[in-house]
Amino acid sequence: MTTSARIHEKVKRLPKGRPLTLETFKQCGSPTSVRQAISRMTKSGELVRVTKGVYARPKIVRHLKNPALPAPESVAKVIAKQNGETLAPHGADVARKLGLSTHVTMQTAFYTTGRTRKVSAGTATIAFQHAPDYLIDQQHTPAGQALLALHHMGPRHTTRDVLGRMRERISREEFGHVDTEKLPRWMREAVDELEAGSHAH
Fold first, then answer.
1. What pTM was computed for the model?
2. What's the rounded Cα separation, in Å, for the pair 144 and 128?
3. Average pLDDT, stretch 88-109?
4. Which of 27, 75, 163, 164 is the most buried (most CB within 10 A)?
């Protein structure tokens, strides 16, 4: 079976609209033959190119002129995996969820352990903003989410009012588990206040 035939068979079994990379087909042939086969399938319409190195089976949606592309969030995750990056929610989105801000980002945005850049994916733009590992590593706890919001807001906008609203959402015990060693001084002080002053609002 040729590389093209192997890829064709594999593509038929993949869900429509899910992003995929050349890595998906590495067992189907040499890197060069895989790239050539994918290029042909993109020209024929069997696959659509979402962004550099990311493709999808076209998902036809009634009333839409062009095939529906994968959600920017899923494209971002595929790009991050391909590059060995770790993503975290952008602090602007976290701040909004915590009721600290009404700012709505006009594009899909993530913090990343990789470099800062913007990627076009169809009609969408995905923004990757570099953030320190020590913040991204703590993202899975409520206090870690608060750190992402603080990182976005910065020392100037981290007011007593903001910290008071954070305390209403996140218990002070959570902040006792934060690894503060690498945090900038202003953020350390904010965490100390959040841990100590649960009843100070």
1. 0.86
2. 19
3. 90
4. 75
